[in-house]
Amino acid sequence: MRKVKLLSKVLALAFVLSALMPLEVHADSIADNKAALAKRPDLDETGTKLKTSRTIDGIKYSLTIDLTKWSGYTNVEQFDHIEELFYQAYPPMYVRFGDYKSAPTDIIIAVEDEGYEVASAYGGGMNRIHIYDKWLDMHYDDFDALTHELGHIVSGGFQTKKLEFSKYEEVFAEYCRYIYAYKDGRYNDKNWELPDIYAQKTRDKSIRFLVWLDMETSSSNRDIIRDFFEVCCDVDFPQEEWVNVWKSLLKGTKFDGKTIDEVWKIYRDSDFSHYSSKASDKDSKSELIRKTDVRNFIKKNSYRFN
Ligand SMILES: [Zn+2]
Fold first, then answer.
1. If I label 36, which of 8, 44, 61, 300 is the partner at 20 to 30 A Cα–Cα?
2. How confident is the model at residue 125 (pLDDT cuts 50, 70, 90)?
3. What does residue 217 show for φ and ψ, rounded to 5 degrees?
4. Do 139 and 188 fall into the same domain?
5. What integer pLDDT is reported at residue 14 of this predicted model?
6. Phi and psi of 213, rounded to 5°?
7. 306 with 164, same domain?
8. 286 falls in which pLDDT band (50, 70, 90)?
9. Does 196 lie in the same domain as 140?
10. 5 belongs to a structural domain
11. What is the pLDDT of residues 135-151, one digit of tens each?
């Protein structure tokens, strides 16, 4: 009797623990992952790099997944996702922004069991991304951390000291994460939120404002985000000039003649700034996507995609 009671307690505890665990548990052992890697056709002769390339709309893109410092936490299925993400997310970003500062088309993504950060972009030619080997082990499908880093790669860096707000460099990378998210946001929207007006109350750091501005002004002959991007790459004017720069960025759009702060107020009071961008799982759409279809809208209407 006692034994039965104890067993039922153990089972109840196991049930509670399993309820607390994430739904997708990464159960592969390091040895399994290393054995699976050895069988891959895209593994190079050194046994430390996965190399692929594809030509998309006449442009050749190459990806090297560098596993020199990989300890076996990220698994082979996740490498497939990383490759797919690269060939889905990077080409449209490259076509829209990449020519301006000759962004690279051959990218290295190093999966490394070192470094505290989730991921970072760096390297001599600004073509190298680091992702922490244990990040995707702990956050199984947070693949779009890499889309953010690809946003840094395609920009090649802004003139950070001369920006209107120093956060613009990160805001741009996060804008790219949201718009170019892998598989139309299937993984991004369950793992990451596009902050709403309560989370980002001011214009200096608002990613969603940039997304909204793009949607509101996209047209066949105007791409305000591309023009904003060029200004941030080249900015060489005093801080007080930004007011006028925004005025010229807004020229030819529905906000022609308004100041950027007046446009911010329109955003702040809109429904768009309030909708939830969080999806409950990868098969659901967020309220923001259901109500505005913003990703497809921008891809359809921004002239750089056409
Ligand atoms: Zn960043």
1. 61
2. low
3. -115, -5
4. no
5. 40
6. -60, -40
7. yes
8. very high
9. no
10. no
11. 999 999 999 999 999 99
Question: How remote is the CA of residue 1 from the centroid of ligand 1, in Å?
Answer: 59
Is there a single domain that holds both residue 306 and residue 248? yes
CA 116 – ligand 1 centroid, Å = 14
Mean pLDDT of all residues belonging to the chain: 89
Residue 122 has pLDDT above 80, yes or no: no
CATH of the domain at 62: 3.40.30
Comparing 306 with 97, the larger pLDDT belongs to 97
Q: How many Å lie between the centroid of ligand 1 and the Cα of residue 162? A: 18
Range of the domain at 91: 25-157
Both 168 and 304 in a single domain? yes
Q: Which of 104, 134, 157 is the last residue of a domain?
A: 157
Q: Are residues 195 and 143 in the same domain?
A: no
Ligand 1 centre from 39 Cα, in Å?
34
Q: How far is the CA of 173 from the centre of ligand 1 (A)?
A: 6
Tell me, yes or no, whether 146 and 165 share the same domain.
no
